[in-house]
Amino acid sequence: MTRPDPRLHRPPLDRLPNGLRVRMVPSVAGTQSAALVRIHAGSHDAPVAYPGLAHFLEHMLFLGSAQYTAEAALMPFVQGVGGQLNATTRERHTDFFFQVPARHLEQALLRLLDMLTQPSLDLDAQRREREVLHAEFLARAQDRETLCDAALATAITPMHPASRFHAGHRETLPVDDPAFQQALRGYLDHAYRTGNIELLLTGPQDSSELQRLAQMADTRLRPGAPMPQSAPALHARTDRWLTLHLPQARPRLLLGFVIDGCPQSASVDDYLASWIASEAPGGLLARLRDADLCQGLAMRVPYRFGSQGVLVIEAVLGEAGRRQRAVVAGAVLDWLRFFVAPACWPVCSADYQEVTRRRLLGAEPLQRLRHWVEPGAWSCEAGPEPEAVTALVRCMLASDPVMLTLTGEDGASGEPVDTQGFPLRMTYQTPEPMAMPDWCWQVPQPNPWLRSTSDMIESGQPAETLPLRALGPQDEGGQGALMLRWRFTNPPAVRHWHAVDLALRSRVWAARQAGVELAFEHLGCSWTLSLRGFAEIMPDILADLSPLLVRPPARYVAEGACRAEQAATLGQDAMLLRQLLDRLPQAVADPGESLSTCLAAAEMANLEDRWHDAVWEGLAVGFPEARMATLQSALRSLPGRPISGAMASVAPGRTNRWLHIPGPSGGEVAYVLFRPLPGLDAPSEAAWRVLGRLLEGAFFRRLRSELQLGYAVLCRFGQFAGQAGVFFAVQSPTASAGEIHRHVEAFIEAFSLRLHDWPARDLASVTRETAEQQGEALAEWRGRSERAWQAVLAGQAPEHIEAVKAAMGVLRPADLIQASRSLNGAGRLVLSNAPMPTSEWP
After folding, report:
1. 58, 617, 668, 772: which is the annotated catalytic residue?
2. Which residues sit opposite 86 in a β-bridge?
């Protein structure tokens, strides 16, 4: 019998001499390592007198320590080596995590350990960082999910910390008060000690090397016993329905289940959440969507500790659902009762186990750590048991849920409800009787792609081989990528694209379950389709998608027109800056139109007619030779005709454009500036990649730390729709678009001058590090596929990525100085939710 992959086994928990708990997570060969530290203390464990103290401390720990200044601390170090990092403060735990090239694991871990044990906590830095948290607080006061959770919390019994306000701001963090400083250091001393900490490590290193690093952590961290944690009984008031009024919000119905008495298990919670959000035919969402009651479903867990929890099922209401909230609520409750029936378990459990298996096998190192740190996380030895799932659902159904309606209509009267920080426009209603029609629920249909083997058999004469570019080597883990682009002579209207995108919605879900990320993008005159993940099932997926590209079901055509109209503005459902960055590829690809005009296009002809003159090109990365013939069979079903040569690239924009994309009111300004690389040659791209690395940390320090313009500040080199360049992004609750633009332009000009005085040795070191990162990225199938595809979109050969890597090896400081000059002279593309400030715009 074949032993299951070790990555599917829950790693054992070892306790080291000083009390540190450690898990060594198995890894496959690769270039990346990761670490995760969980502090078993969070916002509910911090002093009640200072809401937000735990989150404030999390921020402060990144700002320098005894052995490392702020400029040499964990964040700039990880950014400088091309890694990723973050931290999060939850109710009962705080996580710090990073992923870096394996050769940098020890140095990154040393910085993390030092900041956890010897943070500087400089008072001036505290004053500055408090303003950053205050800016975050102002942003959260406009965030839909935050406000919904605050509204639900008003129904929880006041003695429980889940009912209280824990977001820090200027008034709750009196950093100049000695009592606050004593509380801050007291919390650090009690929470950040070995008995309260769990460390997870993974990477291609030998297990003895990971063990050495764990022992080093055990000796460097502050020793001490675990912090005791407890919570009073958790109950909620359910004798009234709540309505939260948030202008321009999409109508939703939230069912808040407050439970006490069901042990925490990540796999059980995830199992239920995955089937609530399931797009499977015959499932809960499919039935409600067909009745126009609901357009989307999701379950999230705002609070979970021990046997307590708050689980929220959130429904995006359809037109009928807005008028029949009780019907939607009744359907969800009725389905929950059906879901724990014995008939559901065999099919649903088998699919879930295969989904989780694929998710773990295809995950990056950091994703695996975040899986295994959770209590009761799924493993092949012990997945969710039917008794545990049944117990959770029965606990949820033991009492009525807290019912909250989110509406975009401003129907609230009187003063806002003050939840110790977030004013809520709320009204209350008498509960409506639940409508309980006989839904005749059925077991959701199994996902065929979870068991697909791609055994397409060709008959007759061998077909002509299509001109598909392929890039090796084959990935040992069976992962790969397939990217396709269609260019239209007569581009379809944007609402056509939205109609197809809606038709693909359930396929995106099914593909993700099967371990393949499916993305469908609109890039001006082109449409792109990409599949990344398990290569063996991509031919089946591609063959199933082809008919939908040409003829989306009629019901999606009208909905597509509405979606195109909605897309002309920013929404409430995501961070403004993230929405702008999501729109950047289309703005880069379509330099002749403003984004809002393009998105609002209304006239369209028959979609099938638009395919007649369409041509496509594709790139396959990491595919085994044995699968190429099957893939060729699937490609023959695609609309349009293949093109043998490279498509012409879009010339870099050299003009200045400001695209104003209106969004929700609230005072927040989001701003993205893109400076395109003027040329397409490898030496220029190599120099700009290094320049982007130099800019990244300096931009963050200047605009966030020194000027405190906003809480979201980032800058890096990127490629969008084939166009390379550097982008600068800021979201601020206080600065205007004109102020942000002036500061960004001043930074770029000052940086170019400063580069002349930069020590040649330091420039050479950054260049060498960036070249090594380029090599490591190309060694992994994810990085190789993305960079090769961007080269294809730019009209270059996939091998261009190797030329860039080689060019980095011969870069000189003079080349970087010249690159900074070309950055200053590049065109400007700005996306913002604010109109163009004419006084500052050339």
Report:
1. 58
2. 97
Beta bridge partners of 831: 659, 672
Orientation angle between helical segments 494-503 and 505-513, nearest 10 degrees: 40
DSSP 102: G
Strand partners, 391: none
Distances (CA, A) of 26 to 10, 34, 215, 393, 783: 10, 11, 18, 33, 22
Do the beta carbons of residue 719 and residue 713 sit within 8 Å?
Answer: no
Task: Please count the CA atoms within 13 angstroms of the CA of 413 that sit on its side-chain side.
Answer: 1
- The Cα–Cα gap between 14 and 198 comes to 10
- pLDDT band at 343; cut points 50, 70, 90: confident
Alpha-carbon gap, residue 834 to 673, rounded angstroms: 13
Residue type, 24: M
Measured between alpha carbons, how far is 172 from 169 in angstroms, rounded to an integer?
A: 6
CB 518 within 8 A of CB 508: yes
Paired strand residues for 35: 98, 201
Cβ-contact 569, 553 below 8 angstroms? no
pLDDT in tens, 782-801: 889 999 999 999 888 899 99
**94: phi then psi, degrees, rounded to nearest 5:** -130, 130
pTM, rounded to two decimals: 0.90
Angle value at C-alpha 378, between 297 and 782, nearest 5 degrees: 75
> What secondary structure does DSSP assign to 691-751, as a single string?
HHHHHHHHHHIIIIIIS---SEEEEEEEEETTEEEEEEEEEESSS-HHHHHHHHHHHHHHH
The helix/strand/coil state of 820 is helix
pLDDT at 605: 52
How are beta strands 479-487 and 526-534 bridged, if at all?
antiparallel
- Report the first-to-last Cα separation within the chain, whole angstroms: 70
Residue 156's SS3 state is strand
Eight-class DSSP state of 199: E
Rounded Cα–Cα distance for residues 504 and 509 (Å): 9
Q: What is the pLDDT of residue 776?
A: 86
Q: Does the N-terminal peptide bond of residue 473 adopt cis geometry, omega within 30 degrees of 0? A: yes
> What CA–CA distance (Å, rounded) separates 159 from 311?
19
User: Is-contact 51 172, C-beta < 8 A?
Assistant: yes
DSSP-derived secondary structure for 309-352: EEEEEEEEE-HHHHH-HHHHHHHHHHHHHHHTSGGGHHHHHHHH
To the query of whether residue 58 is one of the catalytic residues in this protein, the response is yes
CB atoms within 10 A of CB 381: 9
Q: What is the pLDDT of residues 655-701, one digit of tens each?
A: 789 999 998 766 789 999 999 998 888 999 999 999 999 999 899 98
| Residue 133 structure tokens | 């948290």
Characterize 722-761 residue by residue with b for buried, 16 or more Cβ atoms within 10 angstroms of its Cβ, and e for exposed. bbbbbbbbbbbbebebbbbbebbbebbeebbeebeebeee
Structure tokens at 204: 């291609």
Q: Which residues fall within 8 angstroms of residue 545, CB to CB, at 6 or more apart?
A: 504, 507, 529
For residue 84, the number of C-alpha atoms closer than 13 Å in the C-beta half-sphere is: 7
Mean pLDDT, residues 200-220 taken together: 96
Distance in angstroms (rounded) separating the CA atoms of residues 446 and 347: 7
DSSP letter, residue 448: G
CB 163 within 8 A of CB 153: yes
- What value does the mean pLDDT of the chain take? 89
Cα–Cα distance, 590 to 109 (Å, whole number)? 44
How far is C-alpha 682 from the chain's CA centre? 30
Does the pLDDT at position 168 exceed 60?
yes
